[in-house]
Specification:
alpha+beta, single chain, 6 helices, Glutaredoxin, 16% strand
């Protein structure tokens, strides 16, 4: 009996280590840090919104997203996790409807910022397909040589919209 209790305790400790290492290994950042990275690099901004009490959110956070990160699919994006209970105002600006988890991606296009989302629990393969578009958009945004993309008034306006979480899209 004592060995069983020790084994269960060890499993709980390992589960928490996996959760903590996901944030470090996957590149998960605060929204502010991820947004800054998006501004600096042009990478799409991907935000997972969930809550501790939501079982599908926990599966996404502790199982699906670490698998996606292990396959290298988060390298082409700036990724953040938002706990909707701890950051209600920010989550409210980004969420579309009350359902969680939601995975939201902001991509910079020639027409401005495009927003796409996945709602509900997802498999690693569906998230990887969702992020596949990000790889293509990052490649398309890379300027030739050392040229830097021009900043326009429209770009500044859409940048402000992404920063606040208020954009239009699908």
């Amino acid at each position: 009996m004592r060995n069983r209790i020790l084994f269960v305790g060890l499993q709980l400790v390992l589960l928490n280590v996996v959760r903590l290492s996901f944030a470090a290994d996957s590149g998960a950042k605060t929204y502010a840090d991820a947004y800054k990275t998006t501004q600096d690099t042009g990478k799409p901004l991907v935000v997972l919104i969930g809550a501790d009490w939501c079982p599908y959110c926990q599966v996404m956070k502790t199982s699906v997203m670490p698998q996606v990160a292990a396959h290298g699919d988060l390298e082409s994006v700036s990724f953040a996790y938002i706990n909707s209970d701890q950051e209600r105002d920010l989550a409210g600006k980004i969420l579309s409807g009350p359902s969680i988890p939601q995975l939201v991606m902001y991509e910079k296009t020639a027409e401005g910022w495009k927003q796409t989302r996945l709602v509900g629990g997802q498999s690693a393969s569906s998230v990887e397909q969702f992020l596949g578009a990000a790889k293509a958009s990052v490649a398309a945004l890379k300027p030739a040589g050392d040229a830097q993309p021009a900043v326009t008034a429209t770009t500044a306006a859409t940048t402000a919209a992404v920063a606040s979480g208020k954009t239009t899209g699908s």
